[in-house]
Amino acid sequence: MAGRDKEKDTNSEVPEQLVDGGRFYVGDTNTALKLTSVPLNGHNYLSWAKAVHISLGGKGKLGHINGKLPPPPETSPNFEQWQSDDLLVIKWLLNSMDPEIENIFLLSADTALDLWQTVHNMYGQENNHARIYELKLEIAQIKKDNKSNTEYLGLLKTKWQELAFYLPPTTDLKIIQARTEQDCIYQYLSGFDSSYEQIRSQILNSAELPSLATVAATIQREETRRRFMTPDNQQQSENQAFISNWTRGEQFTKQGEQSNIHQGSRGFFGGRGRGRGRGNRPTAGKTPYCDHCDKAGHSRDRCWDLFPHLKPQRRDRSDERDRPQAQAAAMIQGRLSLRWHNFNRFCST
């Protein structure tokens, strides 16, 4: 009897329980635990997943994410313990993600296995062309700079290993040919500036990467659209520049008119202009003086006080301001109509 009690006490020290043919361990229950030192950020799935495997394996909880420890029936006396452990694994996984990533998956899964598979489907797919494209660019741009040789080599090996996950070695000729064309597409798309980012993302995020010919045709259609459908901000800049140039031309015209008036006035005042002021030209070196208004610059017979009809008439400034704007608006409307006409002709061909 004493031997049995001793055996029972020894077994009770082992923190494990059987669950319908499976096994789970009642160990660490720290809900604030993080499984990895570097959280999942959307670009490090492979290294993150490997670290999670190691951590959960060491805690006896790996069966919750690999499917080898399915839940017991809800009527089983062990269900509550399994559920408690599973929720603990979910909390650990969420703790090991960036806050932005955690918010994506917080309400997306009921079990640790569901959460693990959801994360894998988002970040671990082998046909993740956008990530492959990003990796190839990163590898091509990595420089040693001030890094030590160990740091430099470690950074490259990390990228190479992730790339090998997406592009595992193969001897299949069709796969090799497809990857060669994909490399051409990646290099082709990398040459476009940020204004093509939207269409580039659409191509790379396709479930199946289209052929190079299809990609080139898509880019060609985009260029055609840009030629005939100018963005609003560019059109507005063109319109403003057009109005500015038009207004500047009108100002030059008005300046010429004012110059003519001024020259005529100088003729009126000093007799140096042509026409009616020639007969009252003063003697050389003397400035005309009006003994009526006691002002220099004109003679008595050209004084505006005595002869108001000689004063030049001023134009209405509001009309002068509005006229070039209205004319420019009419010209812009004509240009837009012509552009729309050309676009309709293009669509009908």
Would you mind describing this structure in some detail?
Pfam families: Retrotran_gag_3. This protein is mainly alpha-helical and 349 residues long. Helix 7 packs antiparallel against helix 8 and helix 12 packs antiparallel against helix 13. Strand 3 and strand 4 form a beta hairpin. It is elongated, with a radius of gyration of 42 Å. The chain folds into 3 domains: 122 residues, no CATH class; 100 residues; 117 residues, no CATH class. The chain has 13 helices and 4 strands. The longest helix has 39 residues.
Write the topology of this structure.
Blueprint: H1 2-12, E1 16-19, E2 22-25, H2 45-58, H3 63-66, H4 79-95, H5 99-105, H6 112-123, H7 129-141, H8 149-166, H9 173-190, H10 197-204, H11 212-228, H12 232-270, E3 289-290, E4 295-296, H13 317-348
Antiparallel strand pairs: 1-2, 3-4
Region (Disordered): 252-289
Biased composition (Polar residues): 252-263
InterPro entries: Copia-like_N
Question: Which geometry do the CA atoms define?
Answer: elongated
Strand content: under 5%
Order of neighbouring strands in the sheet with most strands: 1-2
Please tell me the total number of domains: 3
Helix percent band:
55-70%
Number of helices: 13
The largest pleated sheet is described as:
2 strands, antiparallel
In total, the number of strands is: 4
Averaging pLDDT over every residue, what do you get? 76
Radius of gyration: 42 Å
What order do the helices and strands follow?
A: HEEHHHHHHHHHHHEEH
Alpha carbon gap, first and last residue? 99 Å
InterPro entries: Copia-like_N
Region (Disordered): 252-289
Protein name: Retrotransposon Copia-like N-terminal domain-containing protein
Biased composition (Polar residues): 252-263
